[in-house]
Hints:
The chain is an all-alpha fold. Helix content is about 65%, strand content about 0%. The protein has one domain (about 5-65). It has helices at about 5-10, 20-50, 60-65. The mean pLDDT is about 75.
Amino acid sequence: MNERIKELGRQAGYPDRLAYGTDLVMEKFAELIIRECAKIAVEHEEYCEIKMMPTYAIDMHILERFGVEE
């Protein structure tokens, strides 16, 4: 599992070693979230360029999609 995913798991309260198979589930879950974020970035990059918005505004769309408040 990617070290960054492990670190985020620890921050979320997961122990360093999980039951067999749980690591794979957490890794797949993290991968799906990352893919969704990448998809959002691609979808909104063109929108930002058309509206002459800075591309860093994409983070607002990602946070909004996952219901995360700043």
